[in-house]
Structure formats: C-alpha cells, structure tokens
Design goal:
Structural class of chain B: alpha/beta
CATH architecture of the domain at 4-148 and 224-255 in chain A: Alpha-Beta Barrel
Number of strands of chain B: 14
Shape of chain B: globular
CATH class of the largest domain in chain B: Alpha Beta
Number of domains of chain B: 2
CATH topology of the domain at 4-148 and 224-255 in chain A: TIM Barrel
Largest interface: A-B, 39 and 35 residues
Shape of chain A: globular
Number of helices of chain A: 12
CATH superfamily of the domain at 4-148 and 224-255 in chain A: Aldolase class I
Order of helices and strands of chain B: EEHHEHEHEHEHHEHEHEHEHEEHEHHEH
Radius of gyration of chain B: 19 Å
Helix content of chain A: 40-55%
Number of helices of chain B: 15
Strand content of chain B: 15-25%
CATH architecture of the largest domain in chain B: 3-Layer(aba) Sandwich
Oligomer: heterodimer
Structural class of chain A: alpha/beta
CATH topology of the largest domain in chain B: Rossmann fold
Order of helices and strands of chain A: HEHEHHEHHEHEEHEHEHEHH
Strand order of the largest sheet of chain A: 5-4-3-2-1-9-8-7-6
Bound molecules: pyridoxal-5'-phosphate
Strand content of chain A: 5-15%
Distance between the termini of chain B: 51 Å
C-alpha cells in the first residue's frame, strides 16, 4: 500500500480521486470499472459501501446504492472487493461509509478487516468530530488514516479541531448540499480552500459537484491537493446500464480527460 | 454543541458536518428562549387559546366496564388539528420565529405532524414545506388537502417504501442544501440532538396536566399510564409527568403490524438492535449487516424503524415497559372504543387501547389507568372501512 503522504508528495498536480459505490451495478462490473479508472489515471480511490438511507447523498448516488444493494452488496463483500482492487494495483483507498454499517460489523473488527484488505482511510459520513473518538481510536489501532469533512459553514475553530483529528486528508465539501452533479462550481469553494490552507498542513481534497474538467482545474488552482469526483462518474453507470462496454469507455475517457486537464494546469 | 444530547448511551448527534451549525443554532435558541418570560407567555397563550389546552381527563365509563378496570382518557384528540402534534409545532415554530427564520420544513407520516406544522405556519406567517412519503400521501389524502389549504407545499417522497423514514431522509437532504434560512420542525422525540430534548419539552404539558388532573379527579396518582409509541413524543409527554412517581407503572405500546414473527411491523423496542440512524443512537429495526428495515403498520404515524433515545434508556433501566399489539387487535380496539364511547380514536392511539383490552381479566378491578388518546381517528375512517371489507 502507498500512503497518502507519499502520493501527495510524489504528485506534481492535484490528486485525481474518482468515487464509486462498491458493487454498482454489480460486483464484477463494478470491479472492472474501478480497474479502468485506475488505468485511466486515478491517483486515489474513494469507495462507498451502499446504505439503505444515504442522507448525505443526492438522487444519483441514492440510485447507485439501490442498484448495488439489489445486486447483493454487503460490508463483507465490499471488503472482498477492496482486496481485489488492491491486488490489482496498490492504490490508496479511502472508504466512505454510513456509521451504522461500521457499528454493526462491529467497529474494531471492521477497521481491522478493512486494513487487511489494503484500505487506507475511513470517512464516516454521519459521524462528526465531536464523536470522532468512536472511530479515530479503532482506526489508529488498525493503522488506518482518518478523513473528516469540513463544509463551507464550518467555523474556523471547529475546522482547526477537525484538522487536529485528521491524519489522512480533509474532505472539503464544495457547497452546502448533498452529493450531485452541478453545472457550475459553488463560489464557496475557493474561500474554503484558502481558509483550510491557512489553518493546516494536512492535505485538502475537494468534493461534491465537481462535474467537468474545468471544475477540477478551478479547484486545483485554488490550492486543493485533490479533487473527488462522484456523481458525474456514477451517472455514466446509470446512463448505460444496458451497455457495459460504453459504461466503461465513457468512464475511462472522462477520467483521462480530467487527468490531462489536471496535469496541464 | 453545548450539550451532548445523550440518554445513557443513546441519542447524540450523528449527522454530516454541514448540519452541525444549524443544530447548534437551534440548541442555543432553545436554551435561550425556553424559560424567557415573553416566549413562555406567548406559548402559553397559544396553548390555551389556539390549541385548546388544558385537555380534559375523561373517565371512559363504558369502556372501563368492558375491560373491567378504570380507564381515564387524556383527551389530546380534542386539540386543534386533532392530535398532540400541535403542542410541539407551536413550540418549535415560535422558536423559529424568535430566531427570525421565515421558512420551515417538516416530515410527516400520518400527516398529523405535517398538518400541525402547516396550521402553525399559517398562524405565525411562516412558509412551510412538508415532506411526506408517496404511499402516505395516498393513504392520508385528507390531511394532504388540509395542509395545502393552510398554504403549505406538500412534497411527496417516492424513495424507499414512500413512508416516514423516506420523508425524513429527503427533509434532511433538503435542509442540508437550505441550512442558512430554514428551520427543521422535527416531529417526534427522535433525530439528532437537540430535537429529542426540544420535542419532549414542548410535549410535557400532557404529563403535567394529567398528573394534577389525576390527583383532582381520581383523588390519587394512577396505577398505570399508557400511550402508543411511534417516534415516542406523545408517550414521553405523558410519561415525563410521572417519572419520579415510582409506583406508577409506565407502559408504551408499539405497532406489531402483521406480527412480530414477520418483518412487517415497526416494534422497534420489542425486537430492534442498537444502531445509529437519522442522527441518533437508538434501538433500530435492521438486517444483520445494518441496512435499515422498511416497516409496516396500519397506522402511518407509527411506521418508523427507530425510536426516541429516551425510550431506549427507559426500556434498559426498566422504568418503563414496552409491549406491542398487531394490526388486527388495533382495528378491533378502534371498533370497540368507538361504539362504547362515541369517540373515534386515531389508529395510532388505538394501539394503547388494544393493549388495555388484552389486560381484561388481568388487571384488578380497582386499577386506575390513564391512557393518552394522542389523536382523533377521523383521518383513519377510510382505512378502517377498507379493512372491514377485506
Ligand atoms: C395521533 C398520533 N399519535 C401518535 C403518533 C406517533 O408519534 P409519537 O410516538 O411521536 O407520539 C402520531 C404520529 O403521526 C399520531 O399522528
């Protein structure tokens, strides 16, 4: 496994971080798509375990969760999936998960098994810094990094606390809202990056609403260490459910396009 | 956040970071205004002259004869809007107003909380959006019309099974995107802190009144108090008045739907496992890996897979006991009670009535019970009629 520190240090551009719901639309296709994303230029992967009630997600990722669950995805299968990805290539994998799935596994065991599968970090979407110890301690025991979110309405004091509990990267949410594609990037994003950069040396990766190469470049030039692209990629799956070759081709082409835009910027 | 919002290990605020500033703002306003003389006087006036508090404690003579012990009914069904929900919406909407918010959102199951929110929004000049599961929109159409007549926008939610949990999911998502100018009027004592504490506070008049009415009319405290438990607000309202009266037995009644041996029920405290959902740690109906179950109950207002954190604590400490009755028992109870008392009970409240019917021959004849009639059943007549024909 390559650590985040190495990845961010060795890249001479912002890291490209595609997001997938594990098992969307099914285990095998999903694995092929993730491999294709790696081949097309992904530096880090953000992978989500599907949940019945994803309150931080907009319609695109909600539908992906439903597809993956219908195809039989479970937390245990998701860890097998992650093992298969890291066997293919030792790329850092950040997990995005809703707390109840970790809690039921239960937590200590989940972190240990995720580490064994080759994972790097865990972001629990519905657990905030006030209860961070419920996961930060097991994560550190397992040798995993923590990732927490900062949103445009997070105060400086709070952001400083979040930074102090974060060992991987800060997930800066570009806007006030749930996940989903957006035609323009929120004007809250640049000030947020500046604010975080003034506050901490922890890498800052930006997600939510990044849908085009221009958005990625905009975020990178504002100083972000990474760009996370979710709904836009997941939408390629939704739009091509009957044509898996096109699904894969579209995703590869899109990631390659972002990758070259980031490298050129 | 100033407080942790814990009830033992339960409760807390398990939410995405973006919601924290809004919850902090509400927590702050609640503790600032709840005992503020102006706020308290204004709310008291609305309780009395708008909602119709205090509600009577009524001795149900014929029903008592039927079950063989004394049953007193706390008449929350007589409140404006037809349910206890208005206690909470008046409190929260007034709080929103004191916070200078002009827009509010709410989720609703049976439509009772949505209706109470819509009425209160009209009264206080607030703009209301109500999220309601698509199935519930269909099965509670009368309430949908009433909400719209009050000027609220009703947003049908088609995700999941189109019931209460899906409505809350979408309300939370909407709130996330509109956090700066919108107040979320949560409908029960669940969800993230500070909602369980706030909603309880505004429902405490039920218990305070019932306790003093009991002393005045029965001449002493009741032996048993009982209420139906969905999210748990009407029950917490009643229970809170008797918490320190150790001899008063507290019984909450959950929906066993098609039976506890199926997954088609919503009896969270009876068979749920501890989990984290909609912002709180509580008992939760879920599968082996933690995916949250779709629930099933004849009463839309109890159709929810989680339950208020304080109830979880009361169950574990043994201070309250929780039991469940199935749809069939509820329909029977609805019929019997209506015939004997000329009062249509909400199907939600009929759960508590159904439990009392199971106690016929069990409880001694001198037993005094207070039952919280959380709402009236006019909204349920069609459902009852359909089930009778089946
Ligand atoms: C009449 C009535 N009783 C009870 C409930 C259940 O809610 P709670 O358990 O919060 O009292 C509802 C919810 O809609 C209701 O309408």
């Amino acid at each position: 496994m390559t650590s985040y520190k190495e990845v961010f240090a060795n890249l001479n551009r912002a890291a490209l971080i595609p997001f997938f719901v594990i098992g969307d639309p099914d285990f095998d296709t999903s694995l092929e798509l993730v491999k294709a994303a790696i081949d097309a230029g992904a530096d880090i992967l953000e992978l989500g375990i599907p949940f019945s009630d994803p309150i931080a997600d907009g319609p695109t990722i909600q539908k992906a969760d439903i597809r993956a669950l219908a195809a039989g995805m479970t937390p245990r299968r998701a860890l097998e999936f992650i093992k298969a990805v890291t066997d293919y290539k030792p790329i850092p994998i950040g997990l995005l998960v809703y707390y109840n799935l970790v809690y039921q596994y239960p937590t200590e065991q989940f972190f240990a098994d995720f580490k064994a599968a080759g994972g790097s970090s865990v972001l629990v979407a519905d657990l905030c810094i006030d209860d961070a110890d419920e996961i930060a301690i097991p994560a550190s025991n397992a040798g995993l990094d923590t990732v927490f979110m900062v949103t445009p309405n997070t105060t400086d004091d709070r952001a400083a606390i979040i930074a102090s509990k974060t060992t991987g990267f800060i997930y800066a949410v570009s806007t006030l809202g749930v996940t989903g594609q957006r035609s323009t990037l929120s004007d809250m994003v640049a000030p947020l990056i500046t604010r975080l950069k003034d506050l901490t040396d922890i890498p800052v990766c930006v997600g939510f609403g990044i849908s085009e190469p221009a958005h990625a470049v905009q975020v990178a030039s504002a100083g972000a260490d990474g760009v996370i692209i979710g709904s836009k990629i997941v939408k390629f799956i939704e739009d091509n459910l009957s044509d898996k070759d096109k699904m894969k081709a579209d995703i590869s082409a899109f990631i390659a396009e972002i990758s070259s835009a980031l490298s050129l910027s | 956040m100033k407080h942790k919002g814990r009830f033992g290990q339960f409760g807390g605020f398990y939410v995405p970071e973006v919601l924290i500033p809004a919850l902090e703002e509400i927590e702050d306003a609640f503790y600032r205004f709840k005992d503020d003389p102006k706020f308290a006087a204004e709310l008291d006036n609305l309780y009395k002259n708008y909602a119709g508090r205090p509600t009577p404690l009524y001795f149900a003579q014929r029903f008592s004869k039927h079950v063989g012990f004394n049953v007193y009914i706390k008449r929350e069904d007589l409140l404006h809007g037809g349910a206890h929900k208005v206690n909470n919406t008046l409190g929260q909407c007034l709080l929103a107003k004191y916070m200078n918010k002009t827009k509010i959102i709410a989720e609703t199951g049976a439509g009772q909380h949505g209706l109470a929110t819509s009425m209160t929004a009209a009264l206080l000049g607030l703009e209301a959006k109500i999220f309601m599961g698509a199935l519930d929109v269909k099965r509670q159409s009368v309430n949908v019309h009433k909400m719209r007549l009050c000027g609220a926008e009703v947003c049908p939610v088609s995700g999941g099974t189109g019931t209460l949990k899906d409505a809350i999911n979408d309300a939370l998502r909407y709130w996330t995107a509109n956090i700066t100018d919108t107040f979320y009027v949560f409908g029960s004592v669940c969800g993230p802190h500070p909602f369980p504490t706030i909603v309880k506070h505004f429902q405490t008049p039920i218990g305070i009144e019932a306790r003093s009415q009991s002393i005045n009319t029965i001449g002493r405290l009741p032996d048993i108090i009982t209420a139906c438990v969905g999210g748990g607000s009407n029950s917490i309202g009643l229970f809170s008045g008797f918490m320190d009266d150790k001899d008063v037995r507290i019984v909450g009644v959950e929906p066993a739907g098609r039976g506890l041996d199926t997954t088609e029920h919503a009896a969270t405290l009876a068979v749920g496992k501890i989990g984290v959902f909609h912002g709180a740690k509580s008992y939760l109906l879920q599968d082996d890996v933690g995916q949250v179950h779709e629930t099933e109950s004849i009463s839309a207002g109890l159709d929810y897979p989680a339950v208020g954190p304080e109830h979880c604590q009361l169950k574990d400490s043994g201070r309250a006991e929780y039991t469940a009755v199935n749809d069939e028992q509820v329909l029977d109870a609805f019929g019997i009670f209506t015939k004997l008392e000329g009062i249509l009970p909400a199907l939600e409240s009929s759960h508590a009535i159904a439990w009392l019917i199971t106690q016929k021959g069990v409880l001694p004849s001198e037993t005094n019970v207070i039952l919280n009639l959380s709402g009236r059943g006019d909204k349920d007549v069609d459902i009852v009629e359909q089930n009778r024909q089946m």
